[in-house]
Amino acid sequence: MFRKKVLCCSLILSALVLSKLYSNPNTIAAGDDKIITVKAPSNLSNGEDEKEKNEDNDSNNDHYLSSLTFANDTLPINRPHVESKLLRYFKNFSFKKRGSYSLHKKAEAYLPQIEKILASYGIPEDFKYVPLVESGLDRGVVSSKGAGGYWQFMPATARLYGLKVNGNVDERRDLTKSTHAAAKYIKSLYKQFGNWTLVAAAYNVGGGSLKGSIRRQKEDSYYNLKLNNETGSYVYKLISMKEIIENPEKHGYTRYANRTDQKDPNENML
């Protein structure tokens, strides 16, 4: 009788152990009848993949920003305000914000001619984006202060660099003549400042005003100078304009970037 009871208890104990093993798929048996729990890594793995993906995106973005230049000068991307301003104007010039391909169409039509003229004066090609920022390459734009034409010359400055501006003629509206005048003006600014980034700022605010800011602040880096809002943003606008034209796919202009024939006159890109 005693043997029967012992045998019965052993069978019951074995059944309980086996039941425990098969009821938990995340356990395995090891030596000495020990039960080892195996943790499923799937959830953790998904989280780690997402983290790595975000880190890769951040790394790619940092690499892209650090590769940006203006007139062959690198940008101090390590300064937070520089990065934030660039990202702001990338957003402002993006397709999502503008919803139009008009800037790219105008760039395609006019920039090759502008670039050729600027090159003849030894001016970096990045300055070809000035009229895109100044007037959107619309010769009819006139500012509240009287600046007009593609390059937004004031009448007195236009005349100083050889353009006719009177009641009958306004050569600020002539792309070729106004670009030659702008090239002469830009060259004169370079003689004063010896730095292309400062030349761009001076084009916006005027050489005398920029010299005064440099003298008062004892600072000759555009990225460190405290300037009015328009001038303090001007170079960032030029760089952002350059990037959306040269790298349209990065800023939402995918239909333009993917066109097989960018000179198809029957395609409506507006």
TrEMBL record:
Residues 1-19 form the signal peptide. Residues 124-224 form the Transglycosylase SLT domain. Transmembrane segments: none annotated. The keyword Transcription regulation does not apply. It comes from the Bacteria. Keywords: Signal. Pfam families: SLT (PF01464). The keyword Signal applies. PANTHER family: MEMBRANE-BOUND LYTIC MUREIN TRANSGLYCOSYLASE C, SOLUBLE LYTIC MUREIN TRANSGLYCOSYLASE-RELATED. Belongs to the transglycosylase Slt family. This is Lytic transglycosylase domain-containing protein. The lineage of its organism: Bacteria, Pseudomonadati, Bacteroidota, Sphingobacteriia, Sphingobacteriales.
